[in-house]
């Protein structure tokens, strides 16, 4: 239930953030990639919350209890059993960073595959007209193989963490048998105490393995959820007052400069000045690509200019993006 709640909350908040994102953001982001963030990325975090986080918490509690019992039986032998732990911790931290990076790459590759599939399915008629179905399949297969390779690398790193912890625990058991046996021969420890200590060490090793697995999965989830959390953390570009004041019906562009975010080197408007007063009718005429539609996009707040001044007084002090004018950009 907790995992479902977390996943639902993430998806809802991420979608709300997408709805408030700027037009420039949507121009540069593929729809399939955004859908991947809403689905695959949120699902990766859900798996950790429902399974691995609980196993890790249970492992921490059991390790703490076993450690206290071992200290009460023989502090010296307890130090011997914990001698290999620092190496296991260092290995886990080192590999954890790599797991996170690789899982982030996995999610990016899956997003690229989703974007490729969305584009192909959206334009399937065009692909058939040009007999390009096989090419589209090859491109999608390439993206899927990239995700598979990254996932395999992340799996190897996770296996290295678990193997390292397992090796540390096996070394700890051998050390306990060697040192504990000598203590029994010296009369410092009884057979029953050694047997109890050995059993506690076994329990500790088992739960330490659970902690290692949970840690590896948490690092995977951290890498997988970075993109969706970054999406949620994006501040909305515009805020409105929510009230429509009286209209004055006037706007002006002064020395306006603009280029689309996806084509920053291609200037659409350069030094444009235009004022339309209340009651005037103005026709903007030009060839295709000269910026006629761009003027409307700037007026309605879909984009922000790169320079110049834009004063919209159709609805003063209310962003046209939210049924509002009155936006003032002064970028010089």
Automatic annotation (TrEMBL):
Residues 1-220 form the ABC transmembrane type-1 domain. Pfam families: ABC_membrane, ABC_tran. It comes from the Eukaryota. Signal peptide: none annotated. GO terms for cellular component: mitochondrial inner membrane. One of its GO terms (molecular function) is ABC-type oligopeptide transporter activity. The keyword Cell inner membrane does not apply. It is found in: Membrane. Keywords: Membrane, Transmembrane, Transmembrane helix. InterPro entries: ABC1_TM_dom, ABC1_TM_sf, ABC_transporter-like_ATP-bd, P-loop_NTPase, Type_1_exporter. It is a multi-pass membrane protein. PANTHER family: ATP-BINDING CASSETTE SUB-FAMILY B MEMBER 10, MITOCHONDRIAL, ATP-DEPENDENT PERMEASE MDL1, MITOCHONDRIAL. This is ABC transmembrane type-1 domain-containing protein. It comes from Emiliania huxleyi. The lineage of its organism: Eukaryota, Haptista, Haptophyta, Prymnesiophyceae, Isochrysidales.
